[in-house]
Amino acid sequence: MFLVHAPLFFLLTMLPMLLPVPVQAVIPAVGVIPSSLNVELEQNFNVDIAISDVLDLYGWEFTLSWNPYLLDVVNVAEGPFLKGDGRSTFFAYNISLADGRMVVDCTLLGWISGVSGSGILSTLTFHSKNYGECPLNMYNLLLIDSNEQPILCQTLNGYVRVISPHDVAVTLVDVSPLLAPIGDPVNIDVSIQNQGSYAEVAQVTAYVNSTIVGIQQTSLNGGSLANVSFTWNTTACAKGDYLILATISPVPGEVDLTDNTKTADSMVTVLTLGHDVGVVVIEPVKTVVGQGYDLGVTVKVGNCGVFSETFSVTAYMNTTVLGFQTVTLSSGTKADILFVRSSLSFSKGNYTLNASVSLVSGETEIDDNTLADGWVIITTPGDIQGDFVVDIYDAISLAKVFGSVPTSLGWDSNADINNDSNVDIYDAIILANHFSQH
Hints:
Layout: H1 8-11, E1 29-33, E2 36-40, E3 44-65, E4 71-78, E5 89-96, E6 101-108, E7 115-128, E8 132-145, E9 154-156, E10 158-163, E11 168-176, E12 179-181, E13 185-194, E14 200-208, E15 211-220, E16 225-233, E17 240-242, E18 244-248, E19 261-263, E20 268-271, E21 277-284, E22 288-290, E23 294-303, E24 309-317, E25 320-329, E26 334-342, E27 349-357, E28 370-379, H2 392-400, H3 425-433
Parallel strand pairs: 1-9, 2-10, 12-20, 22-28
Antiparallel strand pairs: 1-3, 3-6, 3-7, 3-8, 4-7, 5-6, 8-10, 11-13, 13-16, 14-15, 14-18, 17-20, 18-19, 21-23, 23-26, 24-25, 24-27, 27-28
């Protein structure tokens, strides 16, 4: 609780008028010590209000201002200068936190001479709450001797910087081109920033997938930005997609490491120098399909060559053709082709999925023109687990995701028995109608 400020001149009326006063030869100074201070965020710190070379000081008063957005006052305490050697004093202050201003005063009590020399008048404790810089301005300074006469003096202000801790970051990883024929260079530009206030030396590393492309050491002043460039030679690379990322090494004292690594927004596709199409992946819409309901298979295909191509895509279950489609893809692009067919003509059992793309003119790399990947079980409707029996375990699987849709957390497409994108009462009825069937 802050004391109500009492005007110093009122208390000084109690002073004697006839005490001998020494002659002041040097102009005393009152200032903020230390005069310049760097502090970190959310830190309590002290500054002293000190006086030097004063004669016969009986009382003092000052006003101090600061930036209230950056600092809060925690405490104001009297220093030892006047109250030393058992002297009695009156100390008071008044603070306006909103305005960032305080008035502080102190006086001796009794029929005594003032104090001479140098020392601490008051100690102020602040708390840093935002980054920035602000002066600690002292004004309306009043020094009074034991005969109630003002003492000529000078003031020295202070300055506080609320600095961020040690912190470096990767802010951007820019890659060009995104489509690169084998052998073409790819430029990797890494933007980094010193988000702290200290000068730092850090190491920047660029990666392609998990392989190091290059390492560079760089120096950064506090708050500064820099760009570090790397060149990736794709000569020895296989065709395909590559993830590009960069890291900056932690600096001593760094705590926030979440932004020391950044990945490029887009992958780089290395292309074959010629004509080249292929199957990338095969994914069933459902791995367990009730006999008589539609089954779906998505085939992702890609054009890994440098020319636009038109070709056919065929999907199979074992050796049975699910269907075929014709697709046109520009260089370096991919597409998902969906095949849907009724499972009624398929016997119950486990089927391997495979797909193929037709050769295009001039194509020589054909290893990826066919792919066998994944499986589908055709079984009794309601057999969600695919063990060829409809039982309590299937009922539990349905109950766990009952009421869910494809966007729901934990969605299980196998529990959507009738393929209406909703696990509901209709699926439960189908399961019940086939319960205990093998």
